[in-house]
Amino acid sequence: xxxxxxxxxxxxxxxxxxxxxxxxxxxxxxxxxxxxxxxxxxxxxxxxxxxxxxxxxxxxxxxxxxxxxxxxxxxxxxxxxxxxxx
Length: 86
Fold this sequence. Notes:
By secondary structure, the chain is an alpha+beta fold. The protein has a single domain (3-83), classed as RNA-binding S4 domain (Structural Genomics Hypothetical 15.5 Kd Protein In mrcA-pckA Intergenic Region, Chain A, Roll). The chain has helices at 3-9, 16-24, and strands spanning 28-30, 33-34, 46-51, 54-60, 76-83. A 5-stranded antiparallel sheet has the order 2-1-3-4-5. It is globular and about 35 Å long. The relative contact order is 0.22.
C-alpha cells in the first residue's frame, strides 16, 4: 500500500492530499530515510512524522486496505510522541 494511503487509512493524517504534501516536504521518514508518497509500506517499517510541533515515531503493525475508526489504531504502534525540539 502507498505511504500516503496508509497514513490516511490508519488515520494518522486525516486527508490523503495532506499526507502527500507532508511526504513531498520531507516531513515523513521511513526507516530513517525521507520517503515519497509512493513508498510501499511494509509490516515492521518505522515511520517518523513531523506534524506541526509534534514528532511522532510509529511502527507499522499491519497493512489493511480499509479500517474502521475503532480499528485504525491497531494498524500501528506509537514508539514515541514528543514535542518538536529546536
